[in-house]
Structures are given as structure tokens and as C-alpha cells.
Amino acid sequence: LGPTEQIDATDLYRRWKTWCEQTGKDHTGDIQRFGRDIRTALPGIRVARPRGEDGSQYRAYIGIGLKVF
Fold first, then answer.
1. What are the residues whose beta carbons fall under 8 Å from the beta carbon of 30, sequence distance 6 or more?
2. How many CB atoms lie within 10 A of CB 21?
3. How far from 44 is each of 20, 27, 35, 60, 61, CA to CA, in Å?
4. Within a 10 A sphere around the Cβ of 36, how many other Cβ atoms?
5. Where are the beta strands (DSSP E) in the chain?
6. Assessment of whether the complete model's pTM goes beyond 0.90
7. Is 44 left (phi over 0), alpha (psi -120 to 50) or beta?
8. Interatomic CA distance for residues 39 and 59, integer angstroms
């Protein structure tokens, strides 16, 4: 978490869904519910529509990112 962190919302959802499947969680819900839940749990997270390298917009969460190991 941090003000300079950012992640594609679809990418974060896919990674969370993969983690759920790998750990035996059956009820992952859809991307809309995931978005509502994450913003409820982490009220400092914002949603933005930045432009990607190809110029197209995508939905992103600002204030959260992935930790690289």
C-alpha cells in the first residue's frame, strides 16, 4: 500500500482469483464484487482510468500494488 502504488484492476483480480483457486477457496465472486470489497476494506484506494503504453485507457487502483519477491 502507498500513494505511488498502482495496478491494473483486472490484473489484480486475476491474481487474487488464482490465489483463491490455489488455496481451495471456492467463492471468488466476480470482478465487480472484488472491486467493491477491496475499496471497502481499504478506503484509501482510488479508481482511475490511466492510459497504457498503447494509448488506450484501463481501469486501475491507485494506492495499492504488488509486492515483488
1. none
2. 11
3. 24, 25, 13, 14, 10
4. 11
5. 6-8, 46-48, 60-62
6. no
7. alpha
8. 14
Q: Would you state the pLDDT for residue 29?
A: 86
Q: Which three cell numbers, joined as nine digits, stand for 42?
A: 481499504
- Provide the grid cell at 1: 500500500
pLDDT tens track for 16-52: 999 999 999 988 789 999 999 999 999 999 999 999 9
